[in-house]
Amino acid sequence: MTAIKNRYDFMLFFDVKDGNPNGDPDAGNLPRIDPETSNGLVTDVCLKRKVRNFVQLAKNGSAGYDIFVKEKAILNNLIADAHKEDGVKQKEKGEKTEAARQVMCKKYFDVRTFGAVMSTGENAGQVRGPVQLTFARSVDQVVPLEHSITRMAVATEAEAEKQQGDNRTMGRKFTIPYALYRCHGFISAPLAAQTGFSEDDLELFWQALVNMFEHDRSAARGEMSARKLIVFKHDSSMGNAPAHVLFDKVKAKANHNPVRDFADYAFTVPSQADMPQGIALEIKL
Predict the structure, then answer these.
(1) Residues 6+ apart with CB under 8 A from 217
(2) How far apart are CA 51 and CA 133, in angstroms?
(3) How far apart (Å, rounded) are the C-alpha atoms in residues 67 and 232?
(4) Running DSSP on this structure, what letter comes out for residue 7?
(5) Whole-number CA gyration radius for the chain
(6) Which of 94, 98, 114, 235 is geometrically suited to a Cys-Cys bond with 129, CB 3.0 to 4.6 A?
(7) How do residues 98-111 score in pLDDT, each as one tens digit?
């Protein structure tokens, strides 16, 4: 497959209602926030995980679309498998690392998309991925809520004896009533040429961003939805305008406060006529 030839910048808007989009393990799993502004945060790692999970479900490990960083994977074993490929085994020692790196890019979607450090065991080098995401930040301030919950059962007989058969366990649950998040992303054509990130990979990536929350439902996350995916396609590999100039053209403003629904926001989205020369506007969602 031929690598993409164009640079892309994109913006993803997604929201959460009565859920915890990304708990912070260092804060008792409270929703992540910026302590100085009270804006909500969702890490790039969290979003990449959802993309990986979608691709894993959609492609079911088919050739060229396996996932390197997945649940219960032992990464060094997967790197070692690359060194066992015929095209790698026959290489001289100094060439094996690059040959194994190419095998990993060809086999794993997330390696050629996001990159990976693969020098932790049998060396397959490092890959700097063409697709990069920022933290997502809520458009407005958020107020995390804490709820008491009750479990009507216990885990052990010892717990039951302590409660004299009442078998109730109290717990806590954290949610955000509503928040709209904004994430920025970047796709580099020169880096895509190094990993083999193709037009087919790009289309699958767009599908993942639009649909990843549809296959990631849980009681903890409440209701999460992708709301807008705005793509700026440059007509060159190096780009025709700075990313921040393009991102600044898109604005979301609440019609009133407190906000409790996506419909409470008014969006300013540019038209093609507003684009700098060499930029094509694509609305994916």
Answers:
(1) none
(2) 11
(3) 27
(4) -
(5) 22
(6) 114
(7) 999 999 999 999 99
CB atoms within 10 A of CB 246: 25
Task: Look at residue 163 in the predicted model and tell me its pLDDT.
Answer: 77
Q: What's the pLDDT score for residue 150?
A: 83
Tell me what the pLDDT averaged over the chain comes to: 94
With tokens 């397959």, the residue in question is 124
In the beta sheet, which residues pair with residue 131? 187
> What is residue 3's DSSP assignment?
B
For residues 170 and 151, give the distance between their C-alpha atoms in angstroms, rounded to a whole number: 6
Burial class (CB in 10 A: 0-12, 13-18, 19+), 186: middle
Neighbours of 33 (CB within 10 A): 21
Q: Where are the domains of the chain?
A: 8-62+127-283
Which pair of tokens denotes residue 262? 């996506």
| Distance separating alpha carbons of residues 29 and 181, to the nearest angstrom | 19
- Is residue 235 helix, strand or coil? coil
* Alpha-carbon distances of 261 from 11, 141, 149, 175, 225, rounded to whole Å: 20, 14, 25, 15, 11
Residues of the chain with pLDDT under 70: none
Q: Are 213 and 50 spatial neighbours (Cβ–Cβ below 8 Å)? A: yes
